[in-house]
Each structure stands twice: as C-alpha cells, then as structure tokens.
C-alpha cells in the first residue's frame, strides 16, 4: 500500500475548506451537531473530483 502524504494534506485542506465554506454561505447547518446530508454531499463531491484530478496510485 502506498501512502502519499502530500495527497492526504491537500485532501485535508479541501475538506476543511469545504466545511468552512458551506457553513459560511449557509449551505450546511451551523453548530447543531449530528448528521448533515448537505455537508456530506459537499465533501463527497469535492473529494471525488479531487481524486479524479489527482488519483492515488
């Protein structure tokens, strides 16, 4: 198994930026805790597109 630290670091930044952006622009619930399908979908789409652009070998 190959672990790419740079890929993981960029993915982490994208996840945090997606969460921050969705909460900032009101697309996700703010500080309510629990499960948020909109937030899940947003992170899923961003990471899916990121892995299409930069796949892990």
Please sum up the structure shown.
With 57 residues, the protein is mostly helical.
Shape: elongated
Radius of gyration: 13 Å
Oligomer: single chain
Please indicate the count of domains.
1
Q: What is the percent of helical residues?
A: 55-70%
SSE-based structural type:
mainly alpha
Largest sheet: none
Number of helix segments? 2
Weakly predicted, low-confidence segments:
none
Average pLDDT over all residues: 89
Q: Beta-strand level of the residues, as a percent range?
A: under 5%
Order of helices and strands: HH
Separation of termini?
Answer: 9 Å
Number of strands: 0
Describe the structure.
With 57 residues, this protein is an all-alpha fold. α1 runs antiparallel to α2. The protein is elongated. The chain contains two helices and no strands. 65% of the residues lie in helices and 0% in strands. The chain has one domain.
Please write out the topology.
Blueprint: H1 5-24, H2 37-53
Helix pairs in contact: 1-2
Which properties best describe this structure?
57 residues; mainly alpha; 0% strand
């Amino acid at each position: 198994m190959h672990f790419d630290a740079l890929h993981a670091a960029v993915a982490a930044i994208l996840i945090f930026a997606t969460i921050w952006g969705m909460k900032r622009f009101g697309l996700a619930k703010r500080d309510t805790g629990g499960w948020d399908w909109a937030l899940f979908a947003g992170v899923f789409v961003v990471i899916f597109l990121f892995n299409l652009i930069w796949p892990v070998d």
